[in-house]
Design brief:
Blueprint (H helix, E strand, L loop, with lengths): L1 H34 L5 H13 L3 H14 L1 H4 L5 H20 L6 H24 L6 H13 L3 H19 L5 H20 L25
Helix pairs in contact: 1-5, 1-6, 2-3, 2-8, 3-5, 3-7, 6-9, 7-8
Length: 221
């Protein structure tokens, strides 16, 4: 009985971290949008597509995530609960936050908003990855291409992100100081919060829900 209770508590903590991380990720991305100082690489693309289609960024993010997930099929990637939840939750959380947070005016507001968005994004990344429910669709694309082509993860990731940033910028997405600052700080921030939110193994072993390894993964919406 005690062992079952311990396993249930362990799973409950992981599920809480998963969905809290995804919701906070969407909120953090919205803060970066409102700062107007530059977005994460994939959100540059999402914003550009949003500008061209008239759809909300959250809807575009969800649609692109679903399309990327389809690319997993030829790559023989297996999605986890976190992968599917990523597609469904982040966009909704982003749109909800954009609905209540107005555009920032003046650098005295925009800079702190940008900084808060980046730090919160790092915390969200740590929460989500430490829950070990599988990578996001874009991370899975990166690792899948690495396995199928033999090209290093670093090169694959760089090529993908340069492509999405360039495409998003051409479509009207915002590239700026926030984009650069995000690129150089998200790794250390994610590592810090991964350690802070690490979930110890459940006593007695056994895995209730398919989990992915957090090693080397950085969550992108």
């Amino acid at each position: 009985m005690a062992r079952n209770s311990s396993r249930q508590g362990h799973l409950a903590r992981r599920l809480f971290q998963l969905y809290a991380g995804l919701a906070l990720y969407g909120a953090s991305s919205a803060l970066l949008v409102r700062s107007g100082l530059g977005l994460e690489p994939w959100n540059v693309l999402h914003q550009g597509l949003s500008e061209r289609t008239g759809l909300s960024m959250g809807v575009v993010l969800t649609a692109v995530g679903a399309l990327v997930l389809l690319l997993w099929i030829p790559l023989r990637q297996r999605p986890g609960l976190g992968t599917v939840s990523n597609v469904l939750v982040i966009g909704a959380a982003m749109d909800a936050t954009l609905a209540v947070v107005p555009d920032a005016h003046g650098m005295a507001v925009r800079v702190p908003l940008m900084a808060a968005g980046i730090v919160l994004n790092g915390a969200a990344t740590g929460l989500y990855i430490a829950a070990r429910f599988g990578p996001g669709p874009r991370d899975g694309l990166m690792t899948g291409l690495h396995r199928r082509t033999g090209i290093s993860v670093r090169v694959v990731r760089t090529a993908i992100e340069i492509t999405v940033v360039a495409t998003g910028f051409v479509l009207g997405g915002t590239v700026g100081a926030g984009t650069l600052l995000y690129a150089v700080t998200i790794g250390p921030l994610a590592q810090l919060f991964l350690r802070l939110f690490a979930v110890p193994p459940a006593s007695g072993g056994g895995t209730v829900v398919a989990a992915g390894r957090p090693r080397g993964a950085i969550l992108r919406p």
